[in-house]
Write a structure and sequence with these properties.
With 198 residues, the protein is of the alpha+beta class. It has one domain (22-171): Sandwich (Immunoglobulin-like). It is 32% helix and 27% strand. The strands form 2 sheets. Strands 5-3-2-1-8 form a 5-stranded antiparallel sheet, covered by helices on one side. Strand 6 (150-155) and strand 7 (163-166) form a beta hairpin. Helix 1 runs antiparallel to helix 4 and helix 2 (124-130) crosses helix 3 (133-145). The longest helix has 23 residues, at 175-197. The chain is globular. 28% of the residues are buried. The chain crosses the membrane at residues 174-193.
Length: 198
């Protein structure tokens, strides 16, 4: 009987671990000058990941960039555009730039976690146009999910943005590996029960 209780607890723990993973959603973006509107010939490049925690109601952002033609003046997420991967839109996140973002450089990195329930996370104009803070959170998440939000890094030579990239969902993991521990636990339970009978 103890083996059965142990097996049930193990299976429950695995199921909780799998459901905890579902609390985060990640988006990635690749930044370049040709992705700007209008496109430019900057050799600058960058990459970014945004991770949404739907339980804690936070978003983490990290990005790196290099080889800009001019020093940075700002960086923030814009959106939503009229369609996925195209057009321009106003600033969603804090203005004039992310808190702690280093200006005056041509290469660098940034990493921070923001509270989606805190008005300081967003551009006040975005909150107003959305109709309030809860609506701004919803609109931001919808812009990410629809591919109509982008990270823009601005510089002195390109005040409207030197490099940018639209966020896309990270590829969904294949569910099979997540189910293997659960399958192993169930098979182990069957083995234990069969062995006890013999």
């Amino acid at each position: 009987m103890r083996a059965l209780v142990f097996a049930i607890n193990a299976v429950t723990g695995l199921m909780l671990a799998v459901s905890a993973e579902a609390a985060t959603i990640s988006y990635v973006a690749t930044l370049s000058g040709p992705a700007e509107v209008p496109p430019n010939t900057s050799a600058g490049t960058g990459s970014s990941t945004v991770t949404i925690d739907t339980v804690a109601r936070t978003f983490g952002i990290e990005f790196t960039f290099a080889n800009l033609l001019a020093p940075t003046t700002a960086a923030h997420i814009h959106g939503p555009t009229a369609g996925p991967g195209t057009g321009t839109a106003g600033v969603i996140t804090a203005v004039p730039f992310f808190p702690g973002f280093l200006t005056g450089v041509t290469s660098g990195s940034y990493e921070q976690i923001f509270d989606l329930t805190d008005a300081a996370t967003f551009n006040p104009d975005f909150v107003t146009s959305a109709g309030g803070l809860p609506e701004a959170e919803t609109a931001f998440l919808a812009a990410l999910a629809s591919g109509s939000a982008y990270l823009n890094i601005h510089s002195t030579q390109f005040p409207a943005g030197e490099i940018r990239g639209f966020y896309q969902p990270t590829p969904a993991p294949i569910p099979l590996p997540a189910t293997l521990p659960l399958l192993g636990a169930v098979l182990g339970l069957g083995f234990v029960l069969r062995r006890r009978r013999t």
